[in-house]
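> @MW can you paste both from yesterday?
MW: sure, first one:
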Amino acid sequence: MNSLFDDEPLPDATPAPAAPLAGIPLAERLRPKTLDEVIGQRHLLGPGMPLRVAFDAGRLHSMILWGPPGVGKTTLARLMAGTFDAQFIAISAVLGGVKDIREAVERAQVAAAQGRRTVVFVDEVHRFNKAQQDAFLPHVEAGLFTFIGATTENPSFEVNSALLSRATVQVLKSLDAEELGQLIARGSEELGITPPTPEAAQRLIGYADGDARRLLNAFDTSASLAQGAQIDEALLERALGEQLRRYDKGGDQFYDVISALHKSVRGSNPDGALYWFARMLDGGVDARYISRRLIRMASEDIGLADPRALRITLDAAEAYERLGSPEGELALAEAVVYLAVAAKSNAVYKAFNEVKAFIKQDQSRPVPVHLRNAPTKLMKELGYGHAYRYAHDEPDAYAAGEQYLPDGLEGQGWYAPVPRGLESRIADKLAELRRLDDEAAAGS
């Protein structure tokens, strides 16, 4: 049976006779029946947010739900169908094909003849090929049914443009620690047991890694073993075994291991980075989570000192998506080593944070007139764009002395490249451009 935030579609069938609660998985017992029961996705479901507005206004429209596993894609699709009293047809792109699409169309036609709307939900829609995805187009355009696709992959790359243009893309996020804590509290209440100890709850939250389904299944298993006793770390170990291998045999906490990987990369130690990477895999951390952290490291700690690092890390993440475990883990290991040995710079990271902090406390400065766009005659008469110097028409394609910051910020500099890797050459380039600016200022 599927669970609360299961992303695998359920068959659209007449409900079976009610079973004793003891025989129903906790995640299924906690499946939200209304939007207000959904935990997480406040950026979509909070007051005034896109999906909440669509629900409240009765505007059911085709969409792609993009997000990681266990965040409620199937649940939201079912809630939409229920809210609008629409027939719900679920298709798995992993197991289904054109035959299933044809059957869905026929069922939607029957429902339409009866004056009832239909929601066709396609799980893992990115696994359908172009021809299969195209099969939905005429029926979506004709309004025969509302199409809702769920995917863990970037729809820009995995969903064909024709279908994408007929659907909005809603991005779902992993649940944060507070939201997972709410799930534990709700599960404890449902089971009528004392909540887990704070240490056990923290371990469960770390193990779930933002996945509500994973958390509730682990909690359900642990509660069954506890037989009414409070769940502590020792009981979690017995209940989940290898699934919950301790990252902290020496007293570390879950996020300490992630921190150790990050600091080993930052410290240019490939052996340490590989060790902590392997520890995380051995402990059951989702490799996709590790790949996201590696992408962050490439931007934060290496940056423009070696721009190839980001591309190599993105390629490794894509290779893992194609191969899965264990084959794809080698690609991530390659990225780990490359990040560790690459030249390091946090210059962009620091400059970006400093600019954000400055803007937050500064006034809203107007765009200088010479930088403004002037698409109309009135704007031209007001001087918009006047005296702007087109860089490509200047010597070496550089308009020496031109001002690009708002008035009052002349000479301000946030980005300071480090003397390592490619950034040492960037520093030389910027120094030469500043020299040309000074010459232009002296001659004006």
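MW: second:
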Amino acid sequence: MPDVKLEIQMLHDRVMVRISPEDGERRSSGGIVIPATAQMAKRLAWGDVLGVGTNVRHVKVGDRVLFNPEDQFEVEVQGGTYLVMRERDVHATATERTDHGTGLYL
């Protein structure tokens, strides 16, 4: 039997996100290197939206979203790791479509 490929479709208010790759260590605005092992407050992460359910209203495929990666469900598809979350778990979006933004840009 040939391999049948099934398209993944998100349901209801679910969003599928690929976490944006990070270098691990970061630099402060003053140029100080902060190692990945440094203890900090809970850190939110940016990710790229790959799929949305039919009841998602404010997030579109292609948006970058800000969320807490520690509270999400992880799934592996064809060797890639993705997160599945509810739309309400998204804290912010970065998109070219602006209705009422913050004035900050990525």
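> thanks! The longest strand covers residues 45-52.
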